[in-house]
Design goal:
mainly beta, 156 residues, ten-stranded antiparallel barrel, globular, Lipocalin, 1 helix
Length: 156
Amino acid sequence: MSIQSLRKAAFAICILAVGLFAVENPFAGTWKLNVAKSKLAGSGIGPSGGVRVESDGKSFKASVDTTDEKGQPNKFDYEATLDGKPSKVTGSAAIDELSLKRVNDHTIDATGKKNGKVVYTDKRTVSQDGKTYTISRTSTSPDGKKNHSTIVFDKQ
């Protein structure tokens, strides 16, 4: 095999490797709330809104623009790593800290806290086809009542 052939083969392998590493994170994108598929009672989320997520596979940057359970605007942002370490949340009345931990490529566990106290725990999953983002949330209201809700988003 000539040096020229070896160079071409090495170049082809490099191009293939770059293509494999460029696969998009399934959580990244713009998501719209699907009220019909959601069970929102106790979730802190009202009947409209969406989420925009950017992710490099190691961290998340999200902008949440929904309504609260009373229909009032609920806009907040966060940037968090996927290692379970707490990150600041800006603009939310419900939480001031969020921790995200990757379970696998399609599942993340999340914990939201307010003043150091756990407000909710989530299991966040994206369907294998990448079209549905589901949050299964267990929360505690300020009066101590436990709630379970399901928040479903469709990819836009």
